[in-house]
Design brief:
With about 160 residues, this protein is α/β, with parallel strands linked by helices. It is about 40% helix and about 15% strand. It folds into two domains: about 90 residues, no CATH class; about 70 residues, no CATH class.
Length: about 160
């Protein structure tokens, strides 16, 4: 995994960890999110296996999806083993235990039309009662992030400055 660091250095500025969705990359997250979150933040954005600068590393785990044309380009560069692992992960996600203190810094965001929202409404409050669940009316899976990057980036910046 290659870690990309964007924004000012030093420990005095807030640091945001961004995990890219399936078939995306650190550079696409910089363009889609980091560049829209305003100044004064530092971003840590890893390229997960089989993505971005790690495209030649076999895929082992992650989650989410991206736009169809990006998916075609990403899948065509991957090994069959990586594609099989992605398909498996899209259906079976293991959620790690998080302490209440960590949960209070976590926000889950879903579009109202997201096929995973129903499950998220059941699972997230049970596993992570201290987290926040935000639902955007009218939006689908990963749609707000990809079609309204400025508003999505502004929402993330607000979360960071609130200490979430």
């Amino acid at each position: 995994m290659k870690m990309h660091v964007y924004g000012p250095g030093g420990r005095d500025c807030p640091t945001v960890l961004i995990i890219h969705p399936m078939l995306s990359s650190a550079s696409s997250m910089k363009a889609a999110l980091c560049d829209h979150m305003g100044p004064g933040l530092r971003f840590l954005v890893p390229d997960l296996s089989a993505h971005g600068d790690e495209a030649s590393t076999p895929y082992v785990s992650a989650a989410a999806e991206a736009a169809a044309h990006a998916m075609v380009a990403s899948f065509s560069a991957m090994s069959e083993e990586s594609i099989r692992a992605i398909v498996r992960d899209c259906s079976h996600v293991s959620l790690p235990p998080l302490s209440p203190a960590i949960q209070r810094h976590c926000t889950f965001a879903y579009g109202q039309k997201d096929s995973d929202l129903r499950l998220a409404r059941r699972v997230i409050p049970r596993l992570y009662p201290e987290t926040e669940l935000r639902v955007w009316p009218g939006w689908g899976h990963c749609e707000r992030m990809s079609r309204d990057a400025r508003a999505y980036g502004a929402m993330l910046r607000d979360l960071v400055t609130e200490g979430r």
